Amino acid sequence: MNNNKTKIILAVFCAVFFVIYSYLPISQIFFSDVPTSKVSIRFNTPDEVMNFYFTNLFADENKMYYSEPYNLLANGFIFPRWAKPIADKITPGTFQGIILIYGSLAKIFSKFIIPFLTPLFAVIGALFFYGIIKLIFNKKIALISFILMLTFPAYIYYSSRVMFHNILFFSLLLGGLYFLLKLFYVKKNKYIYSVLAGLFFGLSLITRTSEIVWVFLLVLIFLLFNFKNLKSYYKYLIIIFIIFILCFAPVLINNKNLYGSYFATGYSLVVSENFEEISHTEQIGLVQSILLPFGFHPRVIITYSFYRYFVKLFWLYIILFLIGLAIFFKIKRNKLQNMYFCFLFLVSCFLIIYYGSWFFRDSLDLNLVSMGSSYVRYFLPIYIFAMPFIGLLLIKIWELNYKFKLNKIFVIFVFCFLFFVSCFVVYFKNSESLVQINKNLLKYRTQAQDILNKTGPDDIILTDISNDKVIFPERSHLIVPQNGDELKPVKLLLELTDVWFFYRDKNVNIEYLNKNKFNLYNLKIIDPQEIQGGAVLFKVITATEYYVMNYSNYFKL
C-alpha cells in the first residue's frame, strides 16, 4: 500500500471517528429542545461537570475558582461534588491539566470547541499510536493497530465522555513517546523533536499527575534500551527535562494560590457510604496521590479487578492478544520490539496493582460490569498497548495462502464482528450505555430549565444524591448530601435567602423525609412542585415558620 492511500485511510478514519466520538455534545447542541444559550451542556458525572465549568471559567476570566459568599456563614458546606471549598472560594477538586489545556485553546478558538476537544485529541492520539507502531513494527501492523484502537469499545466510550481526563492524558503521552522515538531514530530535526517530546510528556502529566510513576518507568526503560547512545543525546534530554518542568509551572503557581502550597492539590480521597454521595473530602498531598494510595491487595486484583475488567469484559480481545503474543515470541524480534513488550509488561503490572487494589463503586448495582466503570478508563493504556499483538496475529492470517481468500474473509469478518460488538456494548448495553446517558442528559436539560424558572440565581438548593449535575452551573449555590451534616447551616441561611430541596423522584413520601431528615434540624419541606422530566422541588422553611403559618391560617378560618 503506497503512502497516499495510507494517508487517505488514516484521514477518513479520523474524520469518521471524530464525528462518532462527538455523539453526546452534538446531540445536546443540535437536537435538544432546550437551547444551550439557556442551559449549558450537561454531563453524567460530577468530575466532568467540574472540568467543563472550570475550563469555561478559565477561558473567560483566567482563574480557577468562583466565589461562594454563603460559605462564610455555612462553614464550607455549600459546594457541588468534585469541587473543593476553601473559605469563600470554590476550587477544582481534581488535576488542573485539562482545564489549562482546553481553556487555553478555547481562548484562541472560542469556547464552542471545548466539548469537541477530547474527540479531536482521541483521533490525534490514534495517529501518534500509528506512528509509534510503524517505527517499532511495520506499516501494516501500525494500520491494523490504529483501526483496532479507534474501534476498541473503551476508547470509543471515553472519547465520547468528552470531559474526562483519560483520553487527553493518554493521547498526549503517546505524542511524547512518538517524538522521543523520532528523536533517537530519525536523523533530522532533533531539537524540534526534543522540545515536542518534553512538551507532550509535560502536558500529559499535568493532566493526570497520578500516572507519573509508570510514565517515568516507561521513559527509563526506553533510555536503558538506548543506553549506548545516551552520551550523544544528553543535550536533547536536558531540553526535554526543562520543557517538561516548565509545563508544571502554571500548575504549581495555581496550587500555591488556591490551596496554599506548591505541592498541595485539589485531588481528594472521597469517603462515602453512598456510592454517589460525598460525605466528606480529604485533601491529600501530591506524593500520597502518586504512590499507591489504595494499598496492595492481590486477592482483590485477581478475583475482582482483573477477572471483571479483562477476562469478563474483553474476553475476545484477550484470546486474540494471547495468540498474537505467542506469535510474537516465535518470530525474530528487534530491540525496539523487545522494548515495546517491556512497555506493555511494565504498564500492565503497575496499573493493575495501582488501581486494581481497590473497589471503585461507580454504580448502585455492585454486580454491574460496564464501560462506565472507573477501572476501564484507568486500564485504558493496557488495552491500547496490547493492540499491536492482535494486529500481528491478523496480519499473519491475512498473509496466508488459502483458496478463495478465506483467510482474508476471516480477517474482515473479525474486524466487522469486533466493531459490531463494540457498538453494542458502548451504545446499547445496560444503564451506562451512551444511548441511555444521552437520554439522561436531554432529560437533565429539561429539568434544569424548569428549575431555573422556579428558583432565583441567589437561592440555595439542597440536592438529593447526584442532582447537582442537573442544575449546575446555572444554579451554583448547592449543598450536596454530606451524611446529614449539610442541614446544619440551613436555618441560618434561611435568614438570607430562599432554600429549596431538589429530589430525584416525584413519588416521594414527604412525611417520611420531614420526620427522618428535616425535622431533626428544626426544618420542614413544603409545597412540592413537580419538575418537567421527572423529580420534584420542595420549599425549605424552619419548623417554627411552618407552625406559625398553620397557626395563622387556623385563626383566619
Please name the defining characteristics of this protein.
3-stranded antiparallel beta sheet; 26 helices; 557 residues; globular; 10 strands
User: Going across the major beta sheet, what is the strand order?
Assistant: 7-6-8-10-9
Number of helices: 26
Radius of gyration: 26 Å
**Strand count, sense and closure of the main sheet?**
5 strands, mixed
Number-wise, the strands total 10
C-alpha termini separation:
90 Å
Shape: globular
Q: Poorly predicted ranges (pLDDT <50, ≥5 residues)? A: 269-284
Class per helix and strand makeup: alpha+beta
Mean pLDDT: 90
Fraction in beta strands:
5-15%
Estimate percent helicity: 55-70%
Task: Please characterize this protein's 3D structure.
With 557 residues, the protein is α+β, with helices and mostly antiparallel strands. It has a domain at 3-31 and 94-247 and 292-427. It contains 26 helices and ten strands. The strands form three sheets. A five-stranded mixed beta sheet has the order 7-6-8-10-9. A hairpin with an 8-residue loop joins strand 4 and strand 5. The longest helix has 23 residues, at 114-136. The radius of gyration is 26 Å and the shape is globular. It starts with a helix and ends with a helix. Mean pLDDT is 90; it is low at 269-284.
